[in-house]
Amino acid sequence: MEEIKKEAAPQQQPKKGGWKEFFSLGEVGNYFFRKKDPSRPNNINIRMMHGVNKISIIIFLAGVLFLIFKLVIKPRL
């Protein structure tokens, strides 16, 4: 019975944190700068979907930068 409890206990991952982890591009950076994978399907629908996703990510980041400018930098002027 004790052996089963030991196996079921979750492994604790080391805590990741800090500014370096917060500002890392991670998945978003890999989405924009990944190499072509021949095993991935390639048709017009998937290419269009990824193109729209990239545009929406860029628009979102531009909006976040605009809000930061508007809320933080603008009142100081």
Strand content: under 5%
Coarse morphology: flat
Order of helices and strands: HHHH
Based on the structure, what is the oligomeric state of the protein chains? single chain
| Overall helicity | 55-70%
Structural class by helix and strand composition: mainly alpha
Protein architecture, described:
It is a single chain. Helix content is 62%, strand content 0%. The protein has 77 residues and is an all-alpha fold. It is flat. The N and C termini lie far apart (68 Å). The relative contact order is 0.06.
Keywords for this entry:
77 residues, mainly alpha
Draw up the topology in text:
Elements: H1 2-8, H2 19-22, H3 26-32, H4 44-73
Brief sketch in words of this structure:
The protein is mainly α and 77 residues long. It has helices at 2-8, 19-22, 26-32, 44-73.
